Amino acid sequence: MPQDRTPTVRYRNATAFLALGAIWGSAFVAIKAGLSAFPPVLFAALRYDVAGVIVLGYAAVVTDPLPESRRDLAAIIVGSTLLIAGYHALLFVGELETTSATAAVIVSLSPVLTAGFARLALPGDRLSVAGVAGLALGFAGVVVIAQPDPARLLSSDVIGPLLVFGAACAFALGSVLTRWLDAELSIEAMEGWSMVGGAVLMHVLSLALGESPAAVEWTPTALLSLGYLSLVASALGFLLYFALLDRLGPVEINLVSYVAPVFAALTGFLLLGERIDVATASGFVVILVGFVLLKRDAIRETYVGWLAEAQP
To answer: Which residues belong to any copy of the EamA domain (predicted)?
Structure first.
């Protein structure tokens, strides 16, 4: 079915897209604020205790939420371990030692990594020279941000960005494996089950790391951060993402990764007094160029489609 591109629909889609960028960008700030009150992995687990129940409940209303095949179960396992537990455990721990804006910029590497993993996983679809250059630029952007000093490779200001980079890798690999499995379970149900399963895994990991619920300081900031991440960034954010994915397609919705760091920087500056440095801004530009090189054909096709639809 052709997409409706009337001015009203375009405006509605653009507004929803910016809202999603603002929600997911400000989520990095909510994480940073909440980490002063929660042990990091327990914080991530509690977030998805709430969000998982909401999204799974929504899936039960709009679709059949029950997995029916081994592929469905495999997709849920991949989602639980990589997309939810692996990504968020590394992200929350990494944000202990980096700013919200830096974390958001490094996570914006996910579409670059996803494209690279997808190409490498398909023997008949090798990366072109431009594609290899795009992938290399993505990694270079992380190096620019982390600025690793050989004499200080284990310092906290390097470990933090590297953990966030590991989170981006986990999310990208999980995305590729999920697409490769090609399960019949709806996106809403798969996300809901993954959130619940990921929350359970993170609770186990939290206990293994010696994190204690008694260490949580239930301050107003803690409650606000947890509520925002669970209800707004996760539940509302993913439901908004599902709607935009259906309307815009995967190429356009991927661009939200490059809008989120802008909102992360703004909210981090306004609420936490964080300042974005030259290295973070430069790394963001390098990663964005890498994404354009990797997805140049899809971006070109999308642009041509826009022009055709805009003509009377």
So the answer is: 17-145, 159-294
